[in-house]
């Protein structure tokens, strides 16, 4: 007889044998005991987690001839026929090979007949997502109302490809990846049954490589049993070095050593470990991916109170990562994880992975220990408390420059500008001797309402105040509204984008005295603009931009005119011009107020 691989030899035959799918097993067993089994079941999940196996066990249980409560018994004639693959009433088809509408038609014809030997006809379609759209549509009616002697069971690894019309007619069972501990215990029991000696570390490496798939793990275990040596008594021995060599894996202690060197900024050790790994023939891209997963584990151990919930690794590995993470700050681990994450992206497309990985270690070892900002602030505060703060010169730089300008009688430098926030304009000083023609000055800025408070320290520091004069609000010349309309629309767009879009639809805006006439051809264009709050805001924007006390008149041609209330912004502008703080500033710098904005500076 030919050799039977472990994946077939140890395939579960009853619900008790299923590994790592307790919730689904409980639902199926309760459904059998309470006679609540659905006529269509869909098992989904990654490869090798037990989808087809559970479908076969369910088929056994439905046709089991035993009277025991715990079924299937796996000993009756029906169970044995299903186990041997000779059951005439169990039809298991491959969705990839029988995906057309013709196969589904033949299936529908066959299920009309009653079972020959069993109680029910069972139809198992593996990889059901491979069926064509026409085949799915042909199956809809039969799947929704099948004959009482028929049960459908589907299995798929890509449930998103199954039409929603099929999903709604099935009871779905999501099979998860098998946990690390469950797989390790299962593989250890198989090694014991096969009389093979393998260490727990070797089992852990195989489980990590299986990535939650029982079938993948059994295939790797079968490969290692064939590679292992003989102890002389007929018993196979598998060493840890054998697992590393055959599967191309890296021992977990290598990652611990490498991560410790990176965190200690020991570049020499990092390069030595990389050299040893390279000489073993390990795939460097896979090695870097495993290293990134290890640093992810360090972050989890530093952040989560119970890291074993999120880390699907052995308990010894969790303890090793927890000890290493406890010796370093969270910020350092976060930063290194980001460095390796970025390096992995570069490594995926690198033509020379080893050089890229070496440069990655160079960058990682230069990160060092990251100190949180709050710790630096606390240390600085402690230092200042111990040594005291140096006496600060209370005279501001602006005052010092002002005094200097008064001392020099012959060539008086230009007085310093007020802080940028005030946007005050100061005229240049009078120069007594000949000087080259002055450069043209930029257009004078305007005073912002919310920025007046910024000049208070400067005003308070002025030692003397000369005779005051009322500030003069210099009104600019009449501005050409038509020529500057696009600039005004852009100014409004910074504050309210929708309002600027509406203003682009107006027809020939122009001034009539102090009124800014804004006309629209379509009444619906200006409906929102004529609202009281919006018109008031637009009036403020117009007065700020054109620096004139304007009143807005908005209407559609032939429609009702809406006139904005310009008195409130006008009073506010005049109040700002007569503000004592403004008067004091203009007296100090001998300046004039050339503009005032009352609206918001930004959107």
Briefly say what this structure is.
The chain has 603 residues and is an alpha/beta fold. The protein contains 25 helices and 14 strands.
Q: How many separate helices? A: 25
Low-confidence stretches: 391-436, 454-477
Rg over CA atoms, rounded to whole Å, is 41 Å
Tell me the name of the CATH class of the largest domain: Alpha Beta
Distance between the terminal alpha carbons, to the nearest Å?
Answer: 83 Å
Mean pLDDT figure:
78
Task: Write the CATH architecture name of the largest domain.
Answer: 3-Layer(aba) Sandwich
Walk me through this protein's architecture:
- It is a single chain.
- This protein is 48% helix and 10% strand.
- It folds into four domains: 6-174, Rossmann fold (3-Layer(aba) Sandwich); 180-247, Orthogonal Bundle (Helicase, Ruva Protein, domain 3); 254-365, Zinc Finger, Delta Prime, domain 3 (Up-down Bundle); 420-426 and 444-603, no CATH class.
- The longest helix has 20 residues, at 284-303.
- Helix 21 (481-493) packs antiparallel against helix 22.
- The protein is an alpha/beta fold and 603 residues long.
- It has a five-stranded parallel sheet with strand order 2-3-4-1-5, with helices on one face. Strands 10-11-12-13 form a four-stranded mixed sheet, covered by helices on one side.
